[in-house]
Structure formats: C-alpha cells, structure tokens
Design brief:
The complex is a heterodimer of chains A (172) and B (411). Chain A contains 7 helices and 5 strands. Chain A is an alpha+beta fold and 172 residues long. Chain A has one domain: Alpha-Beta Complex (Sufe protein. Chain: A). In chain A, the strands form 2 sheets. Chain A has a 3-stranded antiparallel beta sheet, covered by helices on one side. In chain A, strand 2 and strand 3 form a beta hairpin. In chain A, helix 2 crosses helix 3 and helix 3 packs parallel to helix 7. Chain B has 2 domains: 140 residues, Aspartate Aminotransferase, domain 1; 255 residues, 3-Layer(aba) Sandwich (Aspartate Aminotransferase, domain 2), CATH 3.40.640. Chain B has a 7-stranded mixed beta sheet, with helices on both faces. A 4-stranded antiparallel beta sheet of chain B has the order 13-14-17-16, covered by helices on one side. The longest helix of chain B has 23 residues. Classes of the chains: A alpha+beta (172), B alpha/beta (411). The structure holds pyridoxal-5'-phosphate. The site of pyridoxal-5'-phosphate has 15 residues of chain B, from helix 4.
C-alpha cells in the first residue's frame, strides 16, 4: 500500500511552500500560456522567454494542489536556460516517468532508486539525480515518481508539462 | 418522534465494517452517494433469486410478483413525497434524467424564444446544463438568483427575475453549501408571476420530510442512490395534469398504447415516460430504502443531522479557527449536513488525500457546481457530509485527520 510519504516527498513540499520562478514576464517578448484541469480547478500559467532556441527565462503563476504546484516549480527550474530541444527532452522524460506503471516500478526497483536519488531534505534546484530516462536528467523531478501510485493525481503532476509543451509549440 | 439509534443503524450497513489503510472506514461523503443497508441489498438479492422477470408483460406468477413489487416501490415513493397517487411518480435513472425529462418534454412545448428560465447560483450542473442546452437551442434567457453573504438565496430582486419567466428551477438543498431553501415561499412567488416550479430535491428527500403539496411545486426530481437506494434509479414527481399534457420523452416499448406503420399512441401516465425495460430491481431496492427511511422517521433523521452538523461545525471552528473557512450558513435551521470548507493554505485535494490515510472519506473538488465555485471565488472545496449512520466519533476522526493534514502541510 502506497504511503503518503511516497506522494509528498520532502522536496515536493519544499517546492510547494517555496515555489521557484514565481511571477510574470512582460508579454511580448515573453509568451504566455495557460493550462487548466477542469476536474479539480488546478491552473498553471507560464511565461516563457525563448531566444535563439534557448529558454532564457521562465515565470509561473496559477494555483492548485501541492502536486501540481510543486511540479510547476520543479519544471521551471529544470528548463530554465536550457535549449528548446533539451526542454522537449525533459518533457518526454517526465511524461515517461508518469506513465510507468506502479507494478513495473516495483519490479525494476526504479521506484526505490528514484526516490532515494533525490534524498530527503535536499532542497537545491537541479540536484544531481541518479536516474536517466530517455537520456534527460530529471534531478529533483524524480521525487514526483511516487505520484504514479496515486493515479488520480498523475494529471496534477502533468499539468505543468502539457502546458509547457503547448507553450513551446506556440513560441517557436 | 424517537431519536435515531445510530449504533443499530450502523450495524445495518455492511460496508461500515470495512477497514481502509488499516483504519475503520469513516464515510463522510453521503452527499455524493449514500451507503446501502442490508435491507436494500436483501430486497434486491431476493428479487433476483426468487422472482425475477420483466414487468408488465408476463402473465405468469413471478412476472406478476415482480410487477407488484415494482409498482409497490412507486407507491412507497409516492407516500414518502406526499403525492396524491403513485401515478404521479415517473421512474428515471436519477435526478439528472428527471430534470432532462422536463427540459425535453414540458419545456419544449411551453418555453419559447424570448421566455426566461430562472435558476440559482447554487445549482448542481444537473439543474444548470439542461437549461443552458434549451437556452442555446431556443433563444431562452437564463436568469440566476444570486447568493447573500450568508450563503442563502438573495431574494431582493426575485420579482424582477421572475417577470416573464416560464419556470423557476431550484434546488431544495445545496450539495455544496448545505443551504436549505424555502421552497413554499419560492413557489408562491413563482406562481404569482405565472411561472412553474421545478425542485431538485436530490439533497432533500434523503434528509428531511418532503411534502410536494406543502411545497406547492409543479415538478420534483429525486435520486435513489443518495437516499440509501441503489444507483440507477430516481424519479420525477409532477402534477398529474402536467404529466398528462407533456409529450413523451424516450420512445420504445412500454411507453406506447398502440403502434402501427403510421404511428403510435402513448401509454397512460406514468408509463408513457418509462420506455424500455426499466431498472426494475433498482426500483425495488429504492422501495426498500424508502421503507428503511420511513421506519427511522424523516423527522428523526433531520434532528439527528442538525445535532451532528452543529457538532461538526463547532469542532471544525474550535480546532482550526480562522485557518479554516466554512462555506455555508451558520444557522442549522437553514442548513443540512453537507459542510464545505477550505484551509487557508492547503488545497482541497491534498486535504482529501491525507485524510484518506486515516480511513476518512471526504470529497474534494467543485462538486458539480462550477458556477457556484466561481461565485465563491475558489477552485475547489473539501466537503464532509453526514447521514443517518454517522456519529460524533466520525466527526472526531475527521477532525483528527484534518489536524494531521494541517501539520503535514505546515509552512
Ligand atoms: C443537488 C443535486 N442535484 C443533482 C445531483 C445529481 O444527481 P444524479 O447524479 O444522481 O443525477 C446531485 C448529486 O450529485 C445533487 O447533489
């Protein structure tokens, strides 16, 4: 039985309480994109500044549950100063992480290694993660792996990423 | 009136013996759907094991038994609602279908372009969307009765809102705020303005004595699964002359008197509205649920819920103070046992997830009332709702689980 600690890793609560990159950017030059989960009312707003194929700056706004807001915060930290292609890679890797079935997690031991990887109490952005999926470094984001054990919350974790995907498609 | 013997009631509900995460199941989501007593489960099981057959068709013994049980359930519901005759009750699959039935039959004949339909800001989507569909199709104006700061209907402008309206469609009790509306008063105002009244009684019939005559309503919808009955059965009460005049809803078997290559004639009311094989055993289960509720006495149910709601509201306020906002009237005379609340800085979903760990079932979300959520200015609330099998220990378990959530998410 999945425990609450699997879902609410310390690092997730940290991002929830102290979200990174909160705010707005002037539009234009930044691109504004909005994501909405009609089921629970979670809302993510992203401001993306894309310059010469690089995400030079990102700000986030919106409201929602700890999972959606922590995921947004972690996402913003993970893609800032990355190239658009790298950012797309992180989107693919994170989406893959969210689609790994719980039983598969248990079999491969990936859950353990992933959860250990981002260590209790580690609060720095971009801390070195241990696991790579599709070649992208997920770092803190691996802490969200536990969400797959709570299927109704996967949408919460993914909202920032589908919104980012849309934003990058529109901005480039 | 005798008090509810809650311990005895609890023993009638097998699911309450269940554990979740190693904890006693504390079910506080009856506003969404109620649990079922053994009497309902047995009535349905017996139907399938001993007399199952289709109704109104066979002339053999078990078919006649089933028909008698199905029509008997209709009579029980009629008595519960204070209807003059069982034939004023049309079975549907739920209250949503009951409202859609009125929107697709009575309203199609009687509501035209330029007419208005009045609803309120506290309606469930089931009493919003059917009218929006009609409004979009017909050029009908949809008007909304607003809320007061105390989460009651603001009737200041009622006469103006009703002017030129064909229908007032209003909930008897809000599934989010708990607010109980004064239907008799609203009916009088609507009728004075020449409008008919539809009451969404989904949250009233399970919890308080309902008398359609005292309400002086024209249509009343209810839903079985919230009143200890099975899912898949609900119904519509309507004044008989309205049912007579309304065109049929769905076409098919049972709703016809005769069919030729040239057309059809309709069956008598209420069967005119019951096309196809109905949820027969569900209706019988609903009949057993009505027996169960009548046995307890709806007066006693209401008193129990008033006492327990007061206890819950007091416990929540005492324990969490200003960190927790309750969205609903304070006066227990004006409210039922569905209590919506929000912590200042914990999202409703997170609250619901953490309390689940303690075996406590509460609902988080918009409760199918998004226009109301927008009025309240919140994306979602957590809702704990009470029923006949709940007691103070359930409320205490909720409060303890919420305290855990508060600690968990403390900044
Ligand atoms: C006030 C109210 N109206 C309508 C409904 C819809 O009930 P059903 O889904 O059974 O049609 C509900 C139940 O959620 C309700 O609380």
């Amino acid at each position: 039985m999945a425990g609450l600690e699997d879902l609410y890793r310390e690092i997730i609560l940290d991002h929830y309480r102290a979200p990174r990159n909160r705010g707005e950017l002037p539009v234009p030059p930044a691109h504004r994109v909005e994501g909405f989960n009609p089921l629970c009312g979670d809302e993510v707003i992203l401001y993306l500044e894309v310059d010469d194929g690089v995400v030079t700056d990102v700000r986030t706004a919106g409201q929602g549950c700890s999972i959606s807001q922590a995921s947004t915060s972690m996402m913003s930290a993970a893609i800032k100063a990355k190239t658009v292609e790298e950012a797309r890679g992180v989107i693919r890797a994170f989406t893959a992480l969210m689609s790994i079935h719980e039983s598969h997690l248990a079999e491969s031991g990936l859950a353990e290694s992933g959860l250990e990887g981002s260590g209790e109490g580690s609060v720095t952005d971009g801390s070195e993660g241990s696991s790579e999926l599709e070649g992208a470094r997920l770092g803190d984001l691996e802490a969200l792996q536990g969400v797959v054990k709570f299927p109704v919350r996967i949408k919460c974790a993914l909202l920032a990423w589908t919104t980012l995907q849309q934003g990058l498609d529109e901005a480039t | 009136m005798k008090d509810l013997d809650v311990a005895r009631i609890q023993a009638d509900f097998p699911i309450l013996k269940r554990q979740v995460h190693g904890k006693r199941l504390v079910y506080l989501d009856s506003a969404s759907s109620a649990q079922k007593p053994i009497q309902v489960l047995d009535a349905m099981d017996r139907s399938y094991r001993e007399s199952y057959a289709n109704v109104h068709r066979g002339v053999y013994t078990i078919a006649e038994e089933m028909t008698a049980a199905y029509e008997g359930a209709r009579a029980k519901v009629a008595a519960l609602l204070g209807a003059a005759s069982p034939n004023e009750i049309v079975f549907t699959k739920n209250v949503t279908e009951a409202i859609n039935l009125v929107a697709n039959t009575w309203a199609r004949v009687n509501v035209r372009e330029g007419d208005a339909i009045v609803i309120t800001e506290m309606e469930h989507h089931a009493n919003v969307v059917p009218w929006q569909m009609l409004a979009a199709e017909r050029g009908v104006e949809l008007r909304w009765i607003p809320l007061t700061d105390d989460y009651l209907l603001d009737l200041t402008d009622l006469d103006r809102l009703l002017d030129g309206a064909k229908l007032l469609s209003v909930t008897a009790a809000s599934n989010v705020l708990g607010t109980i509306n004064d239907i008799s008063h609203l009916s009088a105002a609507a009728h004075a303005a020449g409008a008919l009244v539809l009451v969404d009684a989904a949250q009233a019939v399970p919890h308080l004595p309902v008398d359609v005559a005292a309400w002086d309503a024209d249509f009343v919808g209810f839903t079985g699964h919230k009143m200890l009955g099975p899912s898949g059965i609900g119904g519509l009460w309507a004044r008989p002359e309205l049912l007579e005049a309304m065109p049929p809803f769905l076409g098919g078997g049972e709703m016809i008197r005769d069919v030729t290559k040239d057309g059809f004639t309709t069956n008598d009311v209420p069967w005119k509205f019951e096309a196809g094989t109905m949820p027969i055993v569900e209706a019988i289960g609903l009949g057993a649920a009505v027996d169960y509720l009548t046995g307890l006495g709806l007066d006693a149910v209401r008193e129990h819920e008033k006492t327990l709601t007061t206890y819950m509201v007091d416990q929540l306020t005492n324990r969490f103070g200003a960190g927790l906002t309750i969205y609903g009237p304070r006066d227990v005379e004006q409210r039922g046992g569905a209590v919506s609340f929000l912590f200042d800085n914990i999202h409703a979903h997170d609250v619901s997830q953490v309390v689940d760990e303690s075996g406590v079932c509460v609902r988080a979300g918009h409760h199918c009332a998004k226009p109301l959520m927008r009025v309240l200015g919140v994306p979602a609330t957590t809702r704990a709702s009470l029923y006949v099998y709940n007691d103070e220990a359930d409320v205490d378990a909720l409060v303890e689980a919420l305290a855990t959530a508060e600690r968990f998410f403390a900044i």
